[in-house]
Automatic annotation (TrEMBL):
SUPFAM superfamilies: Winged helix' DNA-binding domain (SSF46785). Gene3D superfamilies: Winged helix-like DNA-binding domain superfamily/Winged helix DNA-binding domain (1.10.10.10). Residues 16-148 form the HTH marR-type domain. The keyword 4Fe-4S does not apply. One of its GO terms (molecular function) is DNA-binding transcription factor activity. PANTHER family: CONSERVED PROTEIN, HTH-TYPE TRANSCRIPTIONAL REGULATOR RV0880. The lineage of its organism: Bacteria, Thermotogati, Deinococcota, Deinococci, Deinococcales. InterPro entries: HTH-type_Bedaq_tolerance (IPR052526), HTH_MarR-typ (IPR000835), WH-like_DNA-bd_sf (IPR036388), WH_DNA-bd_sf (IPR036390). This is DNA-binding transcriptional regulator, MarR family.
Length: 156
């Protein structure tokens, strides 16, 4: 016998829409909180730092960086060009395919990347450190579950 889940077990359209709106609003707030101090100290915004991190974490082509960070390819190209000009990243031609290049952090890029985590933690603590720890843990748990469910759905 087939049983259909009651409608109350399914997320309501308004709840889903509110979840997306709230997530976008929080994302903007977090990015704005981090952007100004990073730009002042390092001359780089959070998107540029995410690209730098992706390269350090093994995304060695612009296409892989774009996929990992879910950014449009032209945006990644523009950011990589800026990072190359700042001597943080170098493009290394792929000897097997001259149309492609590998991206590598320069020594200066590695130094900037190592500064970012500590600086980011300090900024986050200064702006959000007053949040109750249980609220933070609950939010992290819920967001990780949501991310897992979305990834499972994409991979199905």
């Amino acid at each position: 016998m087939n049983s259909v889940s009651p409608a109350s077990d399914l997320p309501q359209v308004d709840d889903l829409y509110d979840l997306v709106r709230l997530t976008l609003r929080l994302s903007r707030q977090f990015r704005q909180t981090l952007d100004e101090p990073f730009v002042q100290a390092l001359g780089l915004n959070t998107k540029e730092l995410l690209v730098l991190a992706a390269i350090m974490d093994g995304a060695q082509t612009p296409g892989r960086v774009a996929a990992r960070q879910q950014l449009p390819a032209p945006t990644v190209t523009r950011i990589v060009t800026k990072l190359v000009a700042a001597d943080l990243v170098q493009r290394v031609p792929d000897p097997g395919d001259l149309r492609r290049c590998e991206l590598q952090l320069t020594d200066q890029g590695k130094a900037v990347r190592s500064q970012v985590r500590g600086m980011g933690q300090d900024i986050v603590q200064a702006h959000f450190g007053q949040l109750p720890p249980e609220t933070v843990r609950s939010a992290l748990h819920a967001l990780r579950e949501l991310q897992g469910a979305l990834e499972a759905r994409e991979n199905a």
